[in-house]
Amino acid sequence: MVTRGLIISIPWLALVNITFALLVLLRNWLFSDIDRLYEVGTARAATIDLLMLTVIVLFSLSLLLVWRKKRGLSLLLLLAGLIWSFCSVWFIAHLQLPFAWPLCTTLLMTSLAALYFYPVGLVCYALPLWIAMPVASVMLNQGVSLRFLVVWLIFTGILVYGRFILLRWFDEAWLRHQQNQALIARLDALAHQDPLTGTANRRAMEAVLENAVEQDKGFALIMLDVDQFKRYNDFYGHQAGDECLAAVALALKKVVRSPDDVVSRYGGEEFLLILFDATEKVAERVAARIQESLRAAAIPHAASTVSDSVTVSMGIASMTVGQTASEVIAQADAALYRAKNAGRNRWSC
Ligand SMILES: Nc1nc2c(ncn2[C@@H]2O[C@H](COP(=O)(O)OP(=O)(O)OP(=O)(O)O)[C@@H](O)[C@H]2O)c(=O)[nH]1
């Protein structure tokens, strides 16, 4: 989150700092020979120019660091903060430039807005500048000015309170973001999951299959139908029928390789299993495991003529090159039909 925040706000902080550094660099052109007016010597002017060029380089580097997600940003911010504080003291105490105070306060406010969520960086950049203001005042007034002290304390209060407000907005935005993520996850589950069994619904299953065909990913299918489920419903009631389907789904989920393979509810009391990178032989082994899993679940089915507990019939098909998803499904469906006709509680390929 902090990294994302820095990617957004560092370009703005860099823009402000580079612009201010350029203003100082171009001072003689912008403010008609200001160096001569304030009697800035050649050596001092060269020092200022060099420091401003350093600020430009530091903020250009900070952009690179943030975009490439590298460490060391706080060190660059500290160096920039120290340069600005040195220049501010010199502008205020020695040159008595009127625009030095607004320069300081603007830089401080800008750093607050850009770095309020990154305390280390904020302290590195803002602390030297914040200290430079009273130092410059003491040097300028040759002593402590009570009026300046009051203004400085008020300004400090504004900065601290401002950070507190910004952090509260940040928390609010983060909370909304988390709520939205939870909502998206819920909507996604509603759109792709069968609410009764918690398996993938038909739409999700079809999307997975089409994707697999597009990417030439091999798979085998097991189309599965609960035996004599109408009798189950008639005997135990519809509510118990629903619970039975959920229990069958649980038994199916236990036998597949999660999360690669997909268990989906094809409709009514029919399920479709997608087994990736599986041959018909592998699918037959899974079918045997399904029978075992259901035997272990032992869901009573007193009305069945096949067994005392719930059983399933299964049709197996595997994808061959050039086949569409619906062709493989039709093949598995035909195999299921054969398993039903052969007496149920079995599989057919
Ligand atoms: N409780 C419940 N029953 C369902 C649901 N979906 C479908 N059914 C019932 O499943 C039964 C399926 O019946 P049939 O298609 O005749 O199949 P069957 O009784 O299983 O017979 P065979 O498949 O030939 O063994 C119907 O009675 C449907 O009402 C469901 O979500 N809940």
TrEMBL record:
It comes from the Bacteria. CDD domains: GGDEF (cd01949). It is an enzyme of class 2 (transferase). Signal peptide: none annotated. It catalyses: 2 GTP = 3',3'-c-di-GMP + 2 diphosphate. Pfam families: GGDEF, MASE5. Gene3D superfamilies: 3.30.70.270. Keywords: GTP-binding, Membrane, Nucleotide-binding, Transmembrane, Transmembrane helix. The chain crosses the membrane at residues 12-30, 50-67, 74-93, 146-166. Pathway: Purine metabolism; 3',5'-cyclic di-GMP biosynthesis. Its cofactor is Mg(2+). Its EC number is 2.7.7.65. Residues 217-349 form the GGDEF domain. This is diguanylate cyclase. It comes from Leclercia barmai.
